[in-house]
Amino acid sequence: CIRIIFSVGKQGCDASVLLDDTSTFRREKTAGPKNASLRGFDVVDSIKSQLESICPGVVSCAENLAVAARDSIVALVRPSRSVQFGRKYSSTASLSAANSNIPSPAMSLDELIFAFSNKGLNDKDMITLSDGRSFCMLLSLSTLLGSHTIGLARCITFRDRIYNEANIDTTYATSSNSNCPSSGGDDNLSPLDASSPATFDNAFYKNLIGKKGPSSL
């Protein structure tokens, strides 16, 4: 749920990423390497179904997604934070808008700073949101790089880094090669934070400083 909420950066947390293809638009779920790795839609659908059976038409899809993401964080760390209700959900989706607005894992630092500045966010906002620990406080901001303190990355999104970049710890690069070969294995998964993959902490930043991560931010 955390990963899904960070995929709606193109126009705010409107749950448009939950929509499937229709005759008038293509879904955002498969927007390039950014959204193609999204999982957990069945969990969100199950939550929504149970809510509708108890209080039909009260909780929107956008609210459902926001609270589910918040509770996912609470399951990892406490205390909890409140989530504002009253969010409206989108009735349409745009594959092209998702591809052009959501930051790509291949972006350079300068490109990321520029992308965030276009949404009214500065470099400090970008760094904070990269880790994701201020998620609840910044949930309503319009574009998010993504929470990288937990979760997995597909081989195709970081292959160039471990094989073609010099700005990387050689031991980390070598250890990543076995799970992400130079060809094939595009969907093989590796932790975004190899030192504490299931903990909501600041190790993501420490890994970046040590050049030990799939991102070269």
UniProtKB/TrEMBL annotation:
Q: Name one GO molecular function term.
A: lactoperoxidase activity
EC number, as in UniProt:
1.11.1.7
Enzyme category, top tier: oxidoreductase
Q: The Plant heme peroxidase family profile domain covers which part of the protein?
A: 11-213
Superkingdom assignment: Eukaryota
Keyword terms, alphabetized: Calcium, Disulfide bond, Heme, Iron, Metal-binding, Oxidoreductase, Peroxidase
Q: Which residues bind Ca(2+) 2?
A: T149, D193, D201
Is Calcium one of the keywords? Answer: yes
Which cofactor does this sequence's record say it needs?
heme b; Ca(2+)
Record: residues binding heme b: H148
Q: Which GO terms describe its biological process?
A: response to oxidative stress
Q: Which Gene3D superfamilies match?
A: 1.10.520.10, Peroxidase, domain 2 (1.10.420.10)
Protein residues bound to Ca(2+) 1 = G12, D14, S16, E28
The family note in this entry says: Belongs to the peroxidase family.
Q: What is this protein called?
A: peroxidase
